[in-house]
Amino acid sequence: MTTSTPTILQWQAEVVDQLLAADVSVAAFVPDSRLNGVLTALSGRGVPLRSLTREEECVAYAAGARIAGKRAVVMLQSSGIGNALNALGTLAVPYRLGIPMIVSMRGTLGETNPSQIPIGRATSPMLGSLGIQSFSLRSADDAASMTEAVLNMAYQAGETSAVLLEPELGGQRERR
Amino acid sequence: MRSSSSPNWEDNVNVVEAVQAIVHTYPEATIVSSLGTATSAARHVTGDGPHFYFGAAMGSALAGALGLAEAAPHRQVVAVLGDGDFLMGANSLWSLSACRPTNLLVVVLADGAYSITGGQTISCPLRLAEVGAALEGLSGATADTAEALRAELTSLPQPGLIEARISESVWPGPSPFVDPAEVVRSVRASLATR
């Protein structure tokens, strides 16, 4: 079996540029195809990656880093938001630890797996019900400004918040 | 795999004595405590010291301790977990095995019950000594007495897991429900000054 290095798309490169500009110290993630380019570029530029076993674990890991003053980011697929809700609602939000999340969306435009539809449809409402604002990124033109804005909300205002990577961006998810 | 035990029944240990052993051994450590008895005991023993008390997020304290330990590599971190909480996030042991911070000890207060919800029984033994021995990069031990716990705290290679077997049931006293803002403020101040 061989693995290939993913091509870094423009929007992925711009997300990475903003993460580096914000001095992100570590990325905790659960794997997803659309995130591959971001993770590869981050690692290539010296940001430690932590591939953890479950999404709520990523949130708690990031909480530990944030309480120590470091700038962690969490990356996950939208299906994992369901797994992460307890840690988000009882740790990240009430402790105001300001954890930015980059969420690769499933269950929305063009989804062919019926099992992904309910949580994809509910991702933004579920986050919103916990007071977590999320912002849909559909165009590479908005990647830099939206990522920067969410990182500012997290690291400066202490608001856990999310960029939602929508299918219109492309990025290795289309045929899976 | 190690096991330290005593046949003397007068050596019964409760959660307060177990946390006292931790604090006596590592007075400068930052404790990450899970909801319930662990947080109550840590607050009681340290006089509400600057520690990362989890007020909920069951099953997430070990991951929080891992993130803190990696972010503060010069600080000793001790995760003090109830056995119920530990089992809800036991997958984090594999992450601990992958990351291997050398400043993190995990002490599970194993009383065999979900104390915070009324003492319902935990039906399976933890066997952390065997688990620690089985996972790469980890070490594990079991301690049946406070003296044995102190010995393991000082000698077990890190990252290490200690199953502190609790044989006397007590409620430490302080509420396990904490003010999140105060927890964050005090931990950050502590990490900045020491």
TrEMBL record, chain A:
Span of domain Thiamine pyrophosphate enzyme N-terminal TPP-binding: 15-103
Lyase keyword on record: yes
GO molecular function, one term: carboxy-lyase activity
Bilayer-crossing regions: none
Keywords attached to this entry: Decarboxylase, Lyase, Pyruvate
InterPro entries linked: THDP-binding, Thiamin_PyroP_enz_TPP-bd_dom, TPP_dependent_decarboxylase
Pfam families noted in UniProt: TPP_enzyme_N (PF02776)
SUPFAM superfamilies: Thiamin diphosphate-binding fold (THDP-binding) (SSF52518)
Protein name as it appears in the record: Sulfopyruvate decarboxylase alpha subunit
From TrEMBL, chain B:
One protein family per Pfam: TPP_enzyme_C
InterPro entries in UniProt: THDP-binding (IPR029061), TPP_dependent_decarboxylase (IPR051818), TPP_enzyme_TPP-bd (IPR011766)
Gene Ontology molecular function, alphabetical: carboxy-lyase activity; magnesium ion binding; thiamine pyrophosphate binding
Secretion signal, residue range per the UniProt entry: none
Gene3D superfamilies the record matches: 3.40.50.970
Keywords, sorted A to Z: Decarboxylase, Lyase
Thiamine pyrophosphate enzyme TPP-binding domain mapped to chain residues: 54-121
PANTHER family linked to this entry: SULFOPYRUVATE DECARBOXYLASE, SULFOPYRUVATE DECARBOXYLASE SUBUNIT ALPHA
Name of the protein in its database record: Thiamine pyrophosphate-dependent enzyme
Organism this protein belongs to: Tamaricihabitans halophyticus
Lineage: Bacteria, Bacillati, Actinomycetota, Actinomycetes, Pseudonocardiales
